[in-house]
């Protein structure tokens, strides 16, 4: 229901592409270029079709000021390497320097502008700032699904000023996500992990109405267990969420969604790398121990159930996977899901910051059906929220009288 690049002849046009180049960087070195690689096809396609491509992105959270360490300059070079084509850079995203740089672009050239969040108008979604961004272009392409939950000038406001299109990555993300939760092949399951129920209440509420099986994992599961009166020792849990956890279980029953909780655990007395650990059944956790991972029986239970599903949505690890040996359940279940996916038996769609690192750690990132580049946007989408950057693509064309 929004326009894609299929219907666009961009030759000679100035096309403003909103990418999400907010990549992990350490001491000025890009540590994970996935987002750059995933947006490259849109930029390449437009350039090859003769567009004058102007790339726009935020980076980090400079809060409306120019912060040198948050410049997009180092990213221009990497983007050029990925595209195999030079990418020009100007240290501004609006104003006269940008005008000059854009005027000198030839068909097929690519220009990266500076971090949009150096201007307070970006996050305020100031229409004047959106207009200043729009002024340098004829067409707007949003390819930043992972920033679509932000109603900012470069993701939302500018789409009201120019004929707007969804880029290829945006198309792919929305296609994969809707195939996983809106129109899934059933039975469909979801692995929802993480440390706190309180941060994932809306998400759980939305997901349980849509899936047949919900695996609750990570420290969040401890709260559900404790709510049933099971001793979880010193485990991380939210004592004030017990009533909520019981309500979730009741609601799931009413909606025909089966909730699966861990049946055993890996426990330790302290949470540090290489800490002495042991396995015990849920219900047998000693008072002075804490649950740090799901145990082997839980892994078997989940893996067996995955084999009965057609679709799996995954958000959140099974344990404290950043610290060995508490990564085992996450790795084992990730590998089981990857195997079923590779055999064509399961469609697995995963996303959210932690989940992507967990799947990378398990070595299965490339073996899932689709891994979203989004963190917060993936979570908001799982919550069933409308994402402003996407909604505007659906409606702005009509407002401009273009559809
Ligand atoms: C992300 O990394 O999730 C997006 O780039 C959005 O970043 P933000 O949380 O700073 O808005």
From TrEMBL:
Record has Kinase as a keyword: yes
EC number(s) reported in the record: 2.7.2.3
GO cellular component, one term: cytosol
Annotated residues for binding of ATP: 200, 322, 352-355
Gene3D superfamilies, alphabetized: Phosphoglycerate kinase, N-terminal domain
Binding partners and assembly: Monomer.
PANTHER family, A to Z: PHOSPHOGLYCERATE KINASE, PHOSPHOGLYCERATE KINASE 1, CHLOROPLASTIC-RELATED
Protein name: Phosphoglycerate kinase
Organism name: Gluconobacter wancherniae NBRC 103581
Taxonomy of the source species: Bacteria, Pseudomonadati, Pseudomonadota, Alphaproteobacteria, Acetobacterales
């Amino acid at each position: 229901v929004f326009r894609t690049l299929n219907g666009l002849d961009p030759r000679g046009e100035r096309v403003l592409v909103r990418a999400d180049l907010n990549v992990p960087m350490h001491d000025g070195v890009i540590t994970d270029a996935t987002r750059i690689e995933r947006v490259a096809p849109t930029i390449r396609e437009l350039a090859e079709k003769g567009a004058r491509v102007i790339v726009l992105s935020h980076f980090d959270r400079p809060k409306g000021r120019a912060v040198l360490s948050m410049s997009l300059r180092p990213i221009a070079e990497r983007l050029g390497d990925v595209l195999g084509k030079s990418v020009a850079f100007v240290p501004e995203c609006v104003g006269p320097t940008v005008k000059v740089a854009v005027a000198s672009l030839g068909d097929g050239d690519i220009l990266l502008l500076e971090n949009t969040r150096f201007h307070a108008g970006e996050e305020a979604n100031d229409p004047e700032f959106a207009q200043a961004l729009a002024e340098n272009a004829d067409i707007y392409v949003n390819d930043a699904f992972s920033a679509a939950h932000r109603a900012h000038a470069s993701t939302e406001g500018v789409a009201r000023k120019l004929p707007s299109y969804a880029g290829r990555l945006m198309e792919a993300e929305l296609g994969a996500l809707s195939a996983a939760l809106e129109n899934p092949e059933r039975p469909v399951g979801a692995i929802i992990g993480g440390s706190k129920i309180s941060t994932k209440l809306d998400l759980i509420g939305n997901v349980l109405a849509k899936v047949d099986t919900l695996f609750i994992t990570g420290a969040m599961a401890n709260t559900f267990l404790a709510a049933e009166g099971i001793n979880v020792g010193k485990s991380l849990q939210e004592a004030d969420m017990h009533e909520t956890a019981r309500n979730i279980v009741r609601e799931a029953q009413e909606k025909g969604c089966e909730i699966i909780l861990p049946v055993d655990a890996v426990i330790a007395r302290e949470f540090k790398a290489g800490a002495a650990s042991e396995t015990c059944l849920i219900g047998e956790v000693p008072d002075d121990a804490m649950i740090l991972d799901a145990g082997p029986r839980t892994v078997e239970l989940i893996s067996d159930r995955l084999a009965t599903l057609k679709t799996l949505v995954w958000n959140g690890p099974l344990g404290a996977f950043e610290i060995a040996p508490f990564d085992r359940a996450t790795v084992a279940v990730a590998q089981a899901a990857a195997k079923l996916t590779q055999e064509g038996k399961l469609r697995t769609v995963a996303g959210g910051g932690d989940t992507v690192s967990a799947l990378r750690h398990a070595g299965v990132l490339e073996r899932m059906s689709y891994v979203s580049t989004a963190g917060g946007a993936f979570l908001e989408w799982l919550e069933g929220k409308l994402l402003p950057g996407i909604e505007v693509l659906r409606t702005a064309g009509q407002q401009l009288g273009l559809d």
